[in-house]
Design a protein that fits this description.
mainly beta, 15-stranded antiparallel sheet, 15 strands
Length: 241
Amino acid sequence: MTTKRSAVIASLAASALAGGTLLTALAGGSPAQAAGPDPADFAHPKANPYFPLRHGLVTRLRGSDGGEHFREVVRITHHTKVIQGVRTTVVRDVVHRADGTLAEQTHDWYAADNGGTVWYFGEQTATYRRDGSVESREGSWQAGVDGARAGKVMPADPHPTQAFRQEFHSGDAEDQAWIVQDNATRTVPAGTYDHVVRSLEWSQLEPGVVSVKFYAPGVGIISEHDMSGGNETFELLSVHR
């Protein structure tokens, strides 16, 4: 995809989400009308190569936002949490500033269904001041609590034109995604990856901000950056399997 075409897509997505058109036309309509996933659909989960939940997998990334530099470690733990009758995998995501102080710590809850689609059931998150005190827990949510609903983070067979709601808790978690490429090649500090899925992602809570994420088979996210409305960027440094 050329830079010009990427810019056009970013502009289209930003305009559409501002007007709510992608929310209804692409992401499946009103979340209030959608039923929660059936626990029976998770009885025999199938692994998704683009969003692996294999215990012990650790990815390390570096990034920046607003001129500040960060290091991020994402670890697939052996811990589980049952939410709405579904046994989810706990993923620990920790971000440190360049000076070593803790910036953010999150426990995410994911589960793959019988077909291989990975669902997002919520997160417990906190941001921290440099002195180690909690600054905010904004963005925390759990499916089934206060109207929050699970969403999809990666389809079983990701391909262009697929669009979906990744999470929903009104006012706290409203991320959505639109897959625009499924056979990209992407080079990051950890190496060069083929058959990469490219996804545009945004939130109704941040109008005008559109990010692009790249997912590699067997790894998950290897790169992400804001295409419009922000300047956050992260790249994969290493993978430990």
